[in-house]
Amino acid sequence: MATTVSSATALAQQGQPARNATGFMGWILSPERRGPLLVTPAIITLFVVNIFPLLWSFGLSFYEYKANRIAPPVFAGLANYRYVLTDPGIWERFGNTAVIVVGSVVLQLVVGFLLALLFAQEFPLRRYLLMLILSPMMLSLSAVGVFFKLFYDPTLGFISRFISLFTTDTFVILSTPARATIAVVVADAWMWSPFVMLLVLAGLVSVPKYLYEAAEIDRAGRWRRFRTITFPYIRSLLLLALLFRTIETFKIFDIVYLLTEGGPGSSTETVSVYVYRLAFQFFRTSQASALGYIMVFAVVVLTSLYLYAIQTRQSEA
Amino acid sequence: MDEIRLDRLTKRFGELVAVDQANLTVGQGEVMCLLGPSGCGKTTMLRMIAGLEWATSGDIWIGGKRVNDLPARDRNVAMTFQFYALYPSLPVQDNLAYPLYAENLSKAEIAKRVAQVSEALDLKSILKRRPHQLSEGEKQRVAVGRSIVRDPTCFLFDEPLSRLDIQLRQTMRTQIKEVLTKLDKPTVIVTHDQIEALTMADRIAVMQLGKVEQIATPHDLFARPANLFVASFIGTPQMNLMPAGVADVGGPESDGSVSARFSLLGETISARVNNGVAALGSGAKVTLGIRPRSFEFANGSATDCLHASVDLIEPMGAEMLVHLIEQGVDMRCVVPSATHISVGDRVSVRCKSGQLHVFDNAGKLVG
Amino acid sequence: MSERREVRAIGQAGWGRTLGAGIVSLIYFFPVYFILMTAFKTRPDALAMPIKFFFSPTLANFYSVFWRADIQGGGVTNSGFSLYFFNSLFISGTSVTLALIIGTAAAYAFSRFPLRGNDTYLFIILTTRMLPPIIAIIPIFVLFRVFGLSGSYTGIIALYTAFNLPFSIWMVKSFFDDLDRDIEDAGRMDGSSEWSVFRKICLPQIYGGLAATFVFAVILTWNEFLFALMLTGTETRTVPVAIARTIGGQVGVDWGLMSAIETLFIIPVVVVTFLLQNQLLRGVTFGTIRK
After folding, report:
1. Disulfide: which of A53, A104, B4, C190 matches C139 by Cβ 3.0-4.6 Å?
2. So where are chain C's domains?
3. What's the whole-number mean pLDDT along residues A182-197?
4. Which of A152-166, A290-304, C115-129, C201-215 is the least confident region?
5. How far apart are CA C126 and CA C131, in angstroms?
6. Which chain A positions have a beta carbon within 8 Å of C169's beta carbon?
């Protein structure tokens, strides 16, 4: 797969035209403009479809507006934000979200990492077993939500039945607050651990073989080998996985909504679900926007921290 | 007895025979070079000694112990890799100390040895740096340092100088040779560069396509190459190899040598040869090998000369490389720059006495 | 004394590993297996406890996916699922392809022509993904209404393209970052235009990475629910929405039907992932590792 210098020469010799130098095309394709030119379509698309609506709803969060009333928005300053931040229920929901995010992401990292270790070497049938492990990622969220609800059902679900083999009577999951949270965490982690596995596997596979050979000659023990050779290679990937998965899990909606609808009570109601409720059940549209933006702020802060950590690691590497 | 011994060592990758029945001995304190073109099996052989590849058949003995079934870590060998294989996440001093952790030494002892090695290889100024911040030469010295910081049964080097520039190569060659002589352990160096081999080795094993063609001191390889391959591989510029026929063989002389005459390129030249050549008999097809520096110009009337035209002259400083051509056969000879010839001249050349090599039609040296 | 056991070099494992990995994989795969199995079960079989592993399979569920029995006596009507499957395929495929094209161009620019605020721009692009979909729904819904894009292909494709852009840009940029510049410079010096250098030197090296990004993006887009719910119409509806509408009005869940739909729905993703598996590993490897 390596492209060599000789093939570079070969393709040049096929009579490629010289660099554009004159005229309008020259101006447009000149080196300074090339970068911005290539980026423009992306920026435009993102702006129109993503950024503009974001700005619009940001503006909306400062008004009083309900989507099911005809009345036009009334300017309300920070009222929405104040309301949202002082609502004690909000903090509970942030807490729920934090628990689910931390639980699920940690579980994904651990399971994904272990799975990657398992698949790091070539062995017979590896391709097919790998497909089995990747399959949860390919299901639609609605299917996962609906079916895991069945799996957790006290009488009809195999998970509950399996656990009830070890307890005295039927094991109820989704109606019990703490267990419901765990149920959500497990379902989400189950679905996304393969993603982490792929990233870590990529790292494991990329370690140059001769480093392990040198370690073998140097008689290094397994733990030392892992610490000094393997881990540095996968560290950046674990960080990447951590970053992506945390952002995604923070927004988690579908699985939670389908499994528990935020219940029992509001013990598994994440911030996303609450925003949905505010917007589409109670039609408190502007408050929903405000809360949503607080969420965004939280995620931005988190992401900045991660990126900062990555930068410092890279510069000292 | 600290030696390395290979006994009919063979390595097969499926149908491909990478190393074929190799026999080799490296004595204590001896530096053995495995020399040959790409694909000749030298690296595979080295890796088998190290324990990174398993032998298909044959035996490997290190320090009097048969090590075929031992993994690399139990063989107590030290190896310097072609790409250095320095641990990227560790600074130089930890790279150097790495092999010592397996020996249960005290921290003080480890630090002492690291200091010794960094002194010997001039690494003091870069001890805290990471491998990606080092130059090629520095990386190479660290890799060597990592090998010598321990007390292994033998040293193995895989193309140690191939990634260095010419000047650095010369410096490192001397430095490594000094270090190895001091350490007095059997050493095997793999290289494709004959200059490296000729300068660093006590003995050289020339390999081609898995077979060991000849094992000899650099001098003997040069003076008495065992077959056509070794003859053409060793020595720059390359030896002239010309097909010829034995015209006739004379009777034995007083000193045991025989006089024989060869016909090539329309000429007949006579030379002193040994019994082996004589035994070939007249009419036998042979290949004559004459090194470029074994030619001397003669004036037109001299006997035992070959006549050719000068095709190209390459100045080489104090000498010059003259390309001759006759009947479609190219010959190279090296003469002092002061010689007066020009392109197109017709010249007579003669092989200096005793420097003619005769190879039979199977390619083996006979005389 | 010389012929030996087969021993592997470092990095090779044998059937023992297969056994261990096999057990783990099967356990991990079990819930998926349950879903697939249920597609072939009759209603009572589906809910039987303990789980019925041996049953007489039926294809009735698959039939019901596409043809639904009329409520008022007799006959069957086309449930429209063939249209929904097509919609999902078309919409996902187009939007991911578009995102890759636009994204690769942008990624190349970010990688090869870095501007002063490069990191900032990239960060802003990343933040567009951070917003919970719930928030963006309302303004986008209004926007679509205003421009008449509701229920059209163009609208939802444009939206999904924008969704996939940040991920594509980030991934593809890291692939470009890791390429060996020497080869490109060699090409430039030999007289190739910038476009040729891009097309014939850079691109071929990252095909694996592009494949990996394609697969990830397709998986995410294929299963997207919320925006599809709000913004597709009767003609452009995607399967996840159709699933929701199917269970919506019924009494109890028809598990067999659900499974059948999901099984059919998962096939393209499985096929694509399987075909691109090697590319995937190689691509993810090649891209996100620093040398």
Report:
1. A53
2. 15-69, 81-288
3. 91
4. C115-129
5. 10
6. 42
Which residue of chain A has the CA closest to B143?
A214
Identify whether the C-beta of residue A151 lies closer than 8 Å to the C-beta of residue C42: no
With a CB cutoff of 8 Å and minimum separation 6, the contacts of A181 are A96, A99, A100, A103, A267, A268
pLDDT of residue C71: 52
- Measured from the Cβ of residue A254, the count of other Cβ atoms closer than 10 Å reads 22
Whole-number mean pLDDT of chain B?
A: 88
A280 touches chain B (CB under 8 A): no
Q: Is B53 in Cβ contact with C9 (below 8 Å)?
A: yes
Q: How many angstroms separate the CA atoms of B207 and A48, rounded?
A: 68
Of B51, B52, B101, the CB nearest to A224: B101
- Binding-face residues of C in 3-62 toward A, CB within 8 A: 10-15, 17-18, 20-22, 24-26, 28-29, 31-32, 34-35, 47, 49-51
Say if A201 is an interface residue toward chain C (CB within 8 Å): yes
**pLDDT tens for each residue of C107-157:** 888 888 777 777 777 777 777 776 667 667 777 777 777 777 777 888 888
Give B53→chain C minimum CA distance, Å: 7
Q: Are A175 and A153 in contact (CB under 8 A)?
A: no
Of C49, C54, C60, which is closest to residue C37 (Cα–Cα)?
Answer: C54
C-alpha to C-alpha distance for B68 and B268, rounded to whole angstroms: 55
Instruction: Tell me if chain A has a CB within 8 Å of the CB of C256.
Output: no
pLDDT in tens, A43-69: 777 777 777 777 777 777 777 766 666
- Amino acid identity for residue B296 in this structure: E
Tens digits of residue pLDDT in C55-91: 777 787 777 777 765 555 555 667 677 788 888 888 9
Structure token digits, residue B77: 């060998």
Domains and CATH numbers, chain B: 4-233 (3.40.50.300), 240-359 (2.40.50.140)
pTM, 2 dp: 0.73
DSSP state of C230: H
Torsion of CA A239, A244, A250, A255, to 10 degrees: -120
With 60 as the cut, is the pLDDT of residue A21 above it? no
Instruction: Say whether B81 and A220 touch across the interface (CB within 8 A).
Output: no
User: What gap in Å lies between CA A201 and CA A189, rounded to an integer?
Assistant: 17
- Ordered by where they begin, the domains of chain A are 87-316 (1.10.3720.10)
Q: Give the pLDDT of residue C231.
A: 81
Amino acid type, A100:
I
B57–chain C Cβ distance below 8 A for any pair:
yes
CB within 8 Å: B52 and C9: yes
**Third-level CATH fold of C81-288:** MetI-like fold (1.10.3720)
B130 interaction partners in chain A (CB closer than 8 Å): 317
- Asked if B99's CB is within 8 angstroms of A218's CB, the reply is yes
Structure tokens at A105: 């992401």
The burial class, CB within 10 Å (0-12 / 13-18 / 19+), for C87 is buried
Per-residue pLDDT band at B216 (split at 50, 70, 90): very high
pLDDT at position B314 over 80: yes
Q: Which residues in chain B have their CB less than 8 angstroms from residue C10's CB?
A: 52
pLDDT at C11 over 60: no
Q: Are A101 and C236 in contact (CB under 8 A)?
A: no
- How many contacts, defined by CB atoms under 8 Å, are there between A and B? 55
CA A244 to chain CA centroid, Å, is 4
Closest-CA residue to A145 (of C219, C52, C35): C35
Q: Which of A206, A213, A217 to substitute to test the interface with B, most B CBs within 10 Å?
A: A217
Q: Which DSSP helix (H) or strand (E) runs through B285?
A: strand B285-290
Helix or strand run (H / E) with residue B288: strand B285-290
* Gap between the Cα atoms of B341 and B346, Å rounded: 9
